[in-house]
Amino acid sequence: MPETPATQPAILTVTLNPALDLSADAPQVVPGPKLRLSAPVFEPGGGGINVARAIDILGGQARVLAALGGVTGARMAEMITGAGLDLLPFALPGETRQSLSVTDRRDGQQYRFILPGPQWAAALSDDLLARIAAAAAPGGWVVLSGSQPPGVADDFALQLAARLTDSGARLVVDTSGSALQHLVAGGHSPAPWCLRMDQAEAEEAAGRALPTPADSLDFAGELVARGVAQVVVLARGADGSVLAGARQRLHCRPPEVPVQSKTGAGDSFTGALVLALAQGDDIAGALRRATAAAAAAVMTGASALCRRDDAERLVQGCVITRP
User: Fold this and answer.
1) CA angle at 229 for the pair 227 and 230, rounded to the nearest 5°
2) Which letter does DSSP use for residue 251 in this model?
3) Are 311 and 54 in contact (CB under 8 A)?
4) pLDDT tens digit string along 282-301?
5) Region 22-31: what's the mean pLDDT?
6) What is the rounded CA–CA span in Å between residue 144 and residue 307?
7) Which of 247, 271, 284, 298 has its CA 20 to 30 A from that of 127?
8) Residues classed as catalytic
9) What is the CATH number of domain 11-27+39-321?
10) Domain boundaries, the chain
């Protein structure tokens, strides 16, 4: 794989809980009878892997550090390297999980079944933290994306932020569950550079509905003020995303696009955001490119990510406002 250009700081994505993603469709999804599915599509999945795939699609480069184990992990490693990505495998005892997405052809609704992943011991997390810190490029970017497997401490992202302090690498986090709740509690130092959440996660964390972009921006600003992260991005589905920082308050709305599947939009967004920042865009320009990539992703079926042509075409229709 070519060397990362000097103008683009290295991007490292980290996936603690990868999954081999299977997607198929059925004439109708109903309880009871056997459901005869179409031939499945297999893709290497998990937040950080998908972020790296999106970066590659958009013309950038990222290294992929993923915890992989067993037969499924070996198969995923072949798929990742076969796609031309630079894989740094982290040996995982046990079997890498699988997930299944089934689309009902009658109404287009998608049903997603996600397994939890193998149990981790504390020593395994310590080893991985050291591995990430060693692989992170000074002044580069580290993207910790996806769920955490059982046994990984809720403060893993904060431990990683501390490990990255000396290198100056900026940490972007997109996680869920109790790990996200721990981050949102705030008051931790050092904290991630950026935290991203979707609409449902943001409303759960806020403990209230966030019906308008201004409501989401207010909550994002609260999180920044509490020291949760320097930059907080909250997704709002078809309404785009908002971003708050110490001196930023931005909303980017995408153009209307035909929706095939919402799966992959968040990872496409994160990949485009980090790539744009690594290539020198300002925060508003990066938000526009990320919003376009997310809109492009919903135009693809099943668990597919964005297409580069769509993402580049949609940028001009993404409107930034500063409420």
Assistant:
1) 95
2) E
3) no
4) 999 999 999 999 999 999 98
5) 94
6) 23
7) 271
8) 267
9) 3.40.1190.20
10) 11-27+39-321
